[in-house]
Amino acid sequence: MKKLYIDDDAADQIVVCSLNDSINLIKDSIKDIKRKRKIDNWDKNYLSECLADLDALEKVYNYYGGNLKK
User: Fold this and answer.
1) Domain boundaries, the chain
2) Residues of the chain with pLDDT under 50
3) In angstroms, what CA-CA distances link 67 with 8, 13, 56, 58, 62?
4) Do 39 and 50 touch, CB atoms closer than 8 A?
5) What pLDDT, on a 0 to 100 scale, did the predictor assign at position 66?
6) Residue among 7, 3, 16 at smallest CA distance from 65
């Protein structure tokens, strides 16, 4: 069995790309909820969770050197 070795910079870039995808998916979910005319309790709870998750992911993204302005 062969092993694949990656350096720290490559590993960090993989994390940044994954975090960027997750951030974009959460932003899309937030937009979808906000577009609704009537938001029920489930949507309010989900929106609250999405906002908290987005904040956490953006902090981790910045830690790994991501640039949210891209």
Assistant:
1) 8-63
2) 70
3) 18, 12, 15, 10, 7
4) no
5) 67
6) 16
